[in-house]
Design goal:
Number of helices: 10
Number of domains: 2
CATH topology of the largest domain: Nucleotidyltransferase, domain 5
CATH superfamily of the largest domain: ATPase, nucleotide binding domain
Order of helices and strands: EEEHEHEHEEEHHHEHHHEHE
Strand content: 15-25%
Bound molecules: zinc ion
Largest sheet: 6 strands, mixed
Low-confidence stretches: 299-308
CATH architecture of the largest domain: 2-Layer Sandwich
Shape: globular
Structural class: alpha/beta
């Protein structure tokens, strides 16, 4: 028996990580390739059963790629919603994993979990209203309002906000649904489609960074006006890997606000919008933070007794 132990699973598009931890200390970490739901969820469930016998963790948190059915009205709550990822539409994530480990379980998106981890241990420590934005393969957002993850009909999908385009920019965008939404204009694949180069090697002075930064600034200004958030944390392979992008976006936000929110000068905006602090550990630590939420009853997410 080990007090304070939590189990976490970060289900990613290519890799899934299972962890045992206490607070922000990860004691064991095992990675699995994300292949089919049967293979991947089965292997993770087997590992959870081993850890249950070995450690008896007090709760399980699951941070998953989306979209997933989280809302109370979903008859398939805890299942993957229709997704382009082959074989995963309808996969019963919550059912398979919670069946492997008795005790409270919470499931939310990987970006919401990362927001919780940054709130608990990282760049937004102690704040109740924050947004975590990942800019990478896609653009995703986890939103914490009043200390709780936002979950209504489902999880927020603010990466698909439509944003005004930079005048003269005729790039069609890469989002399959919207073309030029935030994800369609500012994700890694959007940068690659614009330039023929991946974001990690695109020179810092390349003109294609300007419309990307402008789209991000539009999206961030919309969040500031909508949520009155205390901090916006930027992560993801592009967002963290190319820090000049965040600097460019921040420099454009005051102009986007057009003099509204006059209490926010450049210095305040600079302090409010910050890079993520937990790096690649945000996912697994987020899963542990979700486990904590399941235990404390603070989760506006599916929390249930697993029961073997
Ligand atoms: Zn979109």
């Amino acid at each position: 028996m080990s007090g304070g132990l939590r189990a976490g699973v970060e289900l990613g598009g290519t890799k899934t990580i299972a962890v045992i931890g206490r607070e922000r200390e990860i004691l064991e970490r095992i990675a699995f390739p994300t292949t089919t739901p049967d293979e991947t969820l089965g292997a993770v469930a087997d590992q959870l059963r081993v850890w249950h016998r070995q450690y008896q963790p007090e709760a399980l948190g699951i941070a998953s790629f989306g979209p997933i059915a989280l809302g109370a009205r979903h008859v398939v709550r805890g299942h993957m919603l229709p997704t382009p990822k082959a074989g995963w539409s309808g996969a019963d994530i919550l059912g398979v994993l919670s069946g492997a480990m008795p005790g409270p379980v919470a499931l939310h998106t990987d970006v919401t979990a990362a927001a919780l981890a940054e709130q608990r241990w990282g760049a937004a420590r102690g704040l109740e209203d924050l947004v975590y934005i990942t800019v990478g393969t896609g653009v995703g957002m986890g939103i914490i309002a009043g200390g709780r993850p936002v979950t209504g009909r489902m999880h927020p999908e603010a990466g698909h906000l439509r944003v005004p385009r930079l005048p003269g920019d005729d790039f069609a965008g890469v989002c399959l649904f919207h073309g030029d939404c935030l994800e369609g204009l500012a994700s890694g694949p959007a940068i690659a489609a614009r330039t023929g180069m991946t974001a990690d090697v695109l020179p810092q002075d390349h003109p294609a960074w300007l419309p990307v930064a402008d789209a991000l600034a539009e999206g961030i200004a919309a969040l500031m006006l909508t949520l009155a958030c205390e901090r916006i944390v930027i992560g993801g392979g592009v967002g963290l890997g190319r820090p000049h992008l965040l600097a460019m976006a921040k420099a454009r936000i005051a102009a986007k606000l057009g003099g509204y929110l006059p209490s926010l000068d450049d210095a305040e905006i600079g302090a409010m919008i910050v890079p993520a602090a937990l790096g690649s550990d945000a996912g697994p630590l987020g899963a542990l933070a979700l486990a904590e939420l399941a235990l404390t009853g603070g989760a506006s997410v599916p929390a249930q007794d697993g029961g073997c």
